[in-house]
Specification:
six-stranded antiparallel β-sheet; binds zinc ion; 400 residues; seven-stranded mixed β-sheet; alpha+beta
Length: 400
């Protein structure tokens, strides 16, 4: 009997075998480097030398158990019996399923995630680096499944599939110094392998196969976010020092006074943060440290969309900080939902700061809830993409 994961792998294998589909290298567990990795291989494991012209060495395990591999003195070993280690080969090595069932991997034996494609293990700063070498189409399906529910309208999923694929193509080599293209965190695009892949996401990926957005012939930085709150903003307004890109402009996400993303749970929000917590979060970063106390926070400047650009912190001293640094400090200490966007009013309420605002995320590029609203209003994915990324063109990335 097939597990759900192996059935999905069968479905997804069509994506991996597309001619010209170049694999993308996704760094896994990158923020928690370990010296060993656990790999489940239900159909057996094929281990190859990752070096060019290397000899292929195949190991098969009859049992569908979990295998532990570790990095030791320049090479890899596998635990073949309790505390008995067998040498596999020098770094790097490639792991491949010997059958249809995908490999699952994790840095603890109890939390294994199935991944499409191959796993590459290499020594890295004395620890072990795990890279998932995955076809671009499988990667797109996985990220799309993690980003939005499969119950959303197909045209919205298709628009987002193109944005995700484009972002990946434009991000090749973004983590070159780390030995891969993109990380598996929200810093690049959140990626959980085959864990929550939906049939609707696969359908949207297949329907837009190979398509990316270009501006003057080059893949664009196809940023996207959960909900803009009614108006998107420019890349230059969202990050200090970021370039203003002609296709990432602030656009109104409304029609006849109603926002396309109004169904989002965080379209309008309010939250209170205890003053001591906010102070500690700001103190943790040199760019926002207000000193020993924090009495008041005021928005000093806003961009055209209404988002805060700079803030004044009044404490034992008075300092001006960028809203981007403020937001990053708050999210690093208190989590992604603490202050959902930089489009807010802030006031002191006794022992807490009260934030009232709009939208969730940075507000640049495609608004996911807005794409859903436009699809429900009858827009197709080409029209949705043209609205959020003005001036861009759809192209097959194989024919670039
Ligand atoms: Zn990254
Ligand atoms: Zn929106």
């Amino acid at each position: 009997m097939h597990s759900i994961a192996s059935l999905l792998a069968l479905l997804l294998s069509t994506g991996a075998s597309i001619p010209g589909d170049q694999p993308i290298r996704v760094g896994l567990f990158h923020q928690r480097l370990a010296d060993r990795v656990y790999v489940a291989a239900p159909d057996g494991l094929r281990v190859k030398s990752g070096k060019r012209h290397g000899t292929e060495r195949v190991l098969r395990w009859a049992s569908p158990g979990v295998h532990c591999l570790r990095y030791r003195s320049g090479g890899f070993e596998v635990e073949t019996a309790p505390a008995k280690w067998t040498r596999l080969g020098a770094s790097p090595v490639l792991l491949q399923s010997a059958g249809e069932a995908p490999l699952a991997a994790g840095i603890t034996p109890t939390a294994l995630t199935p991944y499409p494609g191959l796993l590459e293990l290499a020594g890295y700063r004395g620890r072990l680096r795990v890279v998932n070498v995955v076809g671009l189409e499988d990667y797109t399906t996985a990220v799309l499944s993690a980003e939005v529910p499969g119950s959303w309208p197909q045209e919205a999923l298709r628009a987002l599939a193109v944005a995700i694929r484009t972002f990946a193509v434009a991000s090749r080599g973004r983590h070159e110094a780390d030995g891969f293209d993109v990380c598996s965190y929200a810093h690049c695009q959140a990626y959980h392998g085959l864990e929550a892949v939906t049939e609707a996401a696969r359908e949207a990926t297949v329907a837009t196969q190979g398509l990316i957005l270009t501006y003057r012939g080059r893949p664009i930085e196809a940023l996207h976010h959960a909900c803009c709150g009614g108006h998107t903003t420019t890349s230059a307004a969202a990050w200090s020092g970021a370039r203003d890109l002609p296709y990432l402009r602030g656009i109104s996400d409304e029609q006849a006074g109603r926002a396309f993303c109004r169904d989002a749970p965080e379209f309008s929000w309010s939250t209170e943060i205890p003053a001591a917590q906010l102070l500690a979060a700001l103190q943790a970063q040199p760019a926002t440290n207000p000193g020993k106390k924090l009495d008041r926070v005021t928005v000093r400047r806003r961009d055209a969309s209404g988002r805060a650009v700079s803030l004044t912190l009044q404490g034992s001293k008075r300092r001006t900080v960028t809203a981007a640094d403020f937001w990053s400090a708050v999210r690093q200490s208190l989590g992604w939902h603490a202050v959902p966007s930089t489009w807010f009013e802030v006031s002191r309420q006794g022992d807490a700061f009260r934030f009232e605002g709009h939208g969730f995320g940075h507000g640049v590029g495609l608004c996911q809830w807005g794409a859903r609203g436009r699809a429900l209003a009858g827009w197709n994915y080409e029209q949705i993409l043209a609205a959020y990324y003005p001036g861009t063109r759809l192209k097959s990335h194989h024919s670039r």
